[in-house]
Amino acid sequence: MKTIDINDHFTELDRSVLAGDHAYVDYFSYLRFALNTLLSSFDTIHLDSSLELKAVKSFSQKFLNSIEALKLKYGYEEDNPMLVDVTESSFPNFLEFKRLQSDIANQEAEFDKLPSQDSLKQSILDHLVRKHSDPKPLLKQMSRSNYFIRLKWSSLFTEFTPGTLELLNEHTDDARTRTYFYSWASYDSVTNKPFIYTMIFDNKAFSKRENTDVDKDPGFIETIKKATHNSAPLKVIASDIDNTYENVMPKVLKRMEIGPIYGKYAFDKNDFSVLLKKKFQDDDFIFTYNTEIVFSTGESRSKSFLSKGELRQIFYVDESNKECMEKMVSDYHTYMITSHNVAQYLNDMQPEILKKLSAPAYLYTKPRNLNM
What is the pTM of this model? Predict the structure, then answer.
């Protein structure tokens, strides 16, 4: 049987190498500015709870931290440059986050192979004094050393990033039921974009399982990871979690999709990409993100020939809304970050685009230089 290589489903544009002496310096500055603007925009949109807002901001900051870490990793790397998706997201290719996770696991061993930072600093200084040129091999080692120092599980966004489990309330009926809030995030291998998840669910104490409390069950996070390893329809993910645990009943599942960023690093045929290249400057971009929601409207008992069956959640899909029906969700919201110039153009020429947004477009102020 032929082994499937994950590289096989990426196109050349999905894993592009940027050209030019300062290409990656410019790229990382571009991403840093866009992601900092994203963080600022969250204060202007409506989220259901302070816990949700806290989770969204935390994972977005971790994503920015990972981008900063990758900047260190590839700052002086010329032989194996970072892969960038210039079709679906303008973000690094999924493989970079898979490698990041591997680097975290091997952090200490890799760091020990490098000279000490004091030794590197002295060697760099000696080279500058004697040769009056940049000691690129030494700078590469220093950058790599700083990269491994920065790698910490608690502060980075990886292929799968677990969040926090918060107890919302507890009550006793025929069995003790706890209501939890849980958050997590993943980097999608198909679209090369980060996704942030939040879930409110009931956890009943009675069960055939040995571990009935999810806060004591080591398999809970692994189940969440398997259910959200890709960007499947949200109703499918909620049903998978519901079916896996008889004592876990998802009530509300939300997913925030970050990106794409249409602009300088988007080479697809999307209308936004085409518009920006025709009429605007390199520092103009359109950064979109959206939230999908699926919620339970009740329970039904599954049919079974030999038993009374198990209770399963009934997840609502708004069939009166075409987009909700196609995405298999209860509700859907879309948001935009862009420059004043682009927003003014859309308002004058294509106002229907802005009217479809769930909140007014968040306008950023252009920096004098994105390389700052």
Answer: 0.91
